[in-house]
Amino acid sequence: MSLVDSIRNTLVPIHREGYPFIAGFAGVTVVLGYFWEPLFWIGLILTAWCIYFYRDPQRVTPTDDRLVISPADGLVSAVGPAVPPRELNLGDREMTRISVFMNVFSCHINRAPVRGRITTIVHKPGKFLNAELDKASAENERNGLVIDSPNGQVAVVQIAGLVARRIVCWADENNSISIGERFGLIRFGSRVDVYLPEGFAPRVAVGQTAVGGESVLAEFGGEPSAPLVRIS
């Protein structure tokens, strides 16, 4: 492997959604630095953080239809039964919900947890509570997708958080989507919920770290019990 290949593999691509924000941070940094040098260094750190926030790394995604892959990087904050948002028209029965909380240092690119056809996309305005709170699923601003997968309807919901004020979704209704395919992002701290129909068994526990597009959240046809974990 050449030196150029090594550098290329080390550098993480930046998503185009971040270009205007990075340019804005850099411009303000230059202006503030003109008036007072310490502000330049503070701005430079914030600009570097903005670049880091909008990173878009490649991921190696399992393509087994029995698996549900994490739609986001972050901490698994909830695993259990919950009624999906009403606007998704999935009924009033509880489904298995797995939540992944993203902090301001997580990669915020969201990926499809399963493959299938997108039957529904609904954006609902709401509050901007801390996304770690359970009630954020019902009260916060959100954008939900329903995917008709080989094993039933799976919903994935982007939830804005305390700092996040903008949900981006570039997927379209009635289009097919591949497992692990990028479909959107949430700016500056947020959460993604996945609602699973009967037949799926969780393969993660609260407190585990998930990698979007790679970590297995659940498996179809498995035993309906959460995995045992050990903290070390």
Automatic annotation (TrEMBL):
The record marks G189, S190 as: Cleavage (non-hydrolytic). Pathway: Phospholipid metabolism; phosphatidylethanolamine biosynthesis; phosphatidylethanolamine from CDP-diacylglycerol: step 2/2. Is synthesized initially as an inactive proenzyme. Formation of the active enzyme involves a self-maturation process in which the active site pyruvoyl group is generated from an internal serine residue via an autocatalytic post-translational modification. Two non-identical subunits are generated from the proenzyme in this reaction, and the pyruvate is formed at the N-terminus of the alpha chain, which is derived from the carboxyl end of the proenzyme. The keyword Membrane applies. One of its GO terms (biological process) is phosphatidylethanolamine biosynthetic process. The active site is at S190 (schiff-base intermediate with substrate). It is a peripheral membrane protein. Its cofactor is pyruvate. Pfam families: PS_Dcarbxylase. GO terms for molecular function: phosphatidylserine decarboxylase activity. The chain crosses the membrane at residues 21-54. Catalyzes the formation of phosphatidylethanolamine (PtdEtn) from phosphatidylserine (PtdSer). Heterodimer of a large membrane-associated beta subunit and a small pyruvoyl-containing alpha subunit. PANTHER family: ARCHAETIDYLSERINE DECARBOXYLASE PROENZYME-RELATED (PTHR35809:SF1). This is Phosphatidylserine decarboxylase proenzyme. It comes from Phyllobacterium myrsinacearum. The gene is psd.
